# Entry
Amino acid sequence: GEVLGADEFARLPGSHYTVVLASVRDPATLGTLIAAMADRPGALYLLKLGMPDGDWYSLCWSEFDDVEAARAARVQLPDEASLSSGWPRRIGLLQAEIAREAANR
# Structure
């Protein structure tokens, strides 16, 4: 699967949910996880989030109508050591964090 960025993520419906697979300081560490997700349906989004303690990179997977659907989809995730099971987040909340990061530049 291809890895999309904030521009594509910004077009998703804010009321939907995504699954955050990982949040890391160094996006280079996500290579193994991205490769493991390559055969799964759904797009991956790599988002840069500006936090009070510096920049973080979140790898998000796909979009779901509601939190139950996002939670249920976690059973499809690969059994990766680096994978912290994934946690559902409302897309609109992440979109707001990206917008804040862009405003701070």
